[in-house]
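Is this the right way to post structure tokens for a design question? Let me know if I should format differently. Anyway, here goes:
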């Protein structure tokens, strides 16, 4: 017993808040923060001209290449720590989803107890509470079986490791309709009067819940269709996708770059309002499916169409518009030669969500048959190269003089169009 307690104490001390082990859930966050702090300090030092070895300080191309390689190695460490933190966070998330589910059940119990004051406890309240307990048990079991993938949130996490707006909205409607049916089933089981049982059966007829059924069918169809649309656009290189370290609640309202998008926001807001209305209707009429008015149902359908149109219009293939020789102050005008820097101008070179240094370092420019790694050029607070609209790379000596094609390969693996330039001797 003493030996076991001593061993547990040693493990706790080794994996405390300052642990930087990649697979340690206790220190993954601390290890990530330390790696980020070290990377930012190194980047700002290089941006200020500090930390360069004397062997490369005299040559601008050599110093730029050395700085880029040092920052790339540091960025890879940050990315490794970020992935470790994301995996540890997902492993802990299933507990929080379980706590949230049962907190909602307790909240429902309190609301029912408060509303029962004066009116008295009814069979509908008992059925609603039992339905919530059944739903809570099912979600808890799902959280356990998917505990390594975020618990109950696993079905709404997309392939890019972000929360999917379409799946989250569809899951909310599925859970609500399932809860409503369970409430009716509970009331039907407790009903002793044949007339009451017949009324409950009639409450499930399509004429009573046509609006809710239509909305449920549309949002589930949107969830399936959006997944297909996004997958096809990625395969056709018309949409750039990079994987996130972990899902965030903000993913429901933003794009991959973290910017709020109108299509996602209006879809979430309108469906949330419709769900609240349907929940109130269920509380007022627990003997039938919520009769969502057709006016509100049409509003939800318009919102779904807007969201789907936004998905079709999202993204675009990166494009090279022009390639020019990069000219420094005091330099003479001249054609492009091997060893010169060229500036590639275009759009879409940095995919949404790929602003981190480790992903910027994955960008490649293909000049003829030579693949040139895009160097990272640090400035205070970020990088001046590469950017979403311009890239600066040297023309290596292995490029043969003559007409050669230039093509950019982004961090998402998408290739741009080919642009022809003339390289002279």
């Amino acid at each position: 017993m003493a030996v076991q307690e001593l061993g547990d104490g040693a493990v706790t001390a080794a994996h405390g808040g300052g642990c930087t082990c990649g697979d340690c859930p206790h220190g993954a966050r601390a290890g990530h923060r330390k790696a980020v702090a070290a990377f930012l300090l190194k980047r700002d030092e290089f941006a200020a001209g500090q930390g360069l070895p004397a062997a490369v300080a005299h040559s601008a191309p050599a110093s730029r290449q050395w700085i880029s390689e040092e920052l790339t190695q540091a960025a890879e460490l940050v990315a490794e720590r970020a992935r470790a933190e994301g995996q540890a966070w997902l492993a802990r998330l299933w507990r929080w989803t379980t706590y949230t589910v049962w907190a909602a059940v307790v909240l429902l119990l309190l609301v029912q107890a408060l509303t029962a004051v004066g009116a008295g406890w009814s069979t509908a309240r008992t059925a609603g509470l039992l339905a919530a307990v059944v739903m809570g048990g099912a979600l808890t079991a799902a959280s356990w079986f998917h505990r390594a993938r975020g618990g109950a949130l696993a079905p709404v996490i997309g392939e890019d490791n972000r929360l999917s707006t379409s799946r989250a909205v569809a899951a909310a409607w599925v859970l609500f309709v399932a809860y409503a049916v369970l409430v009716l089933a509970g009331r039907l089981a407790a009903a002793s009067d044949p007339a009451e049982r017949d009324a409950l059966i009639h409450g499930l007829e399509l004429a009573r819940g046509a609006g809710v059924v239509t909305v449920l069918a549309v949002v589930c169809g949107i969830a399936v269709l959006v997944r297909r649309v996004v997958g096809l656009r990625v395969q056709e290189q018309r949409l750039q996708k990079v994987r996130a370290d972990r899902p965030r609640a903000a993913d429901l309202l933003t794009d991959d770059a973290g910017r709020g998008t109108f299509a996602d926001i209006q879809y979430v807001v309108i469906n949330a309002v419709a769900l609240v209305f349907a929940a109130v209707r269920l509380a007022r009429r627990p003997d039938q499916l919520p009769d969502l008015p057709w006016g509100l149902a049409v509003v939800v359908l318009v919102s779904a169409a807007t969201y789907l149109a936004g998905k079709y219009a999202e993204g675009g293939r990166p494009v090279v518009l022009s390639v020019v020789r990069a000219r420094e102050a005091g330099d003479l005008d001249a054609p492009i030669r091997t060893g010169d820097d060229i500036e590639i101008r275009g759009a879409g070179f940095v995919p949404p969500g790929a602003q981190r240094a480790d992903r910027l370092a994955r960008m490649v420019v293909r000049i003829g048959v030579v693949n040139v790694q895009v160097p990272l050029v640090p400035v205070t607070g970020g990088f001046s190269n590469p950017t979403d609209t311009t890239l600066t790379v040297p023309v290596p000596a292995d490029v043969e003089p003559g007409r050669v094609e230039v093509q950019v390969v982004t961090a998402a693996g998408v290739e741009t169009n080919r642009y022809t330039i003339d390289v002279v001797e």
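Format looks fine. Someone answered above. Worth noting: The chain has eleven helices and ten strands. The longest strand covers residues 402-409.
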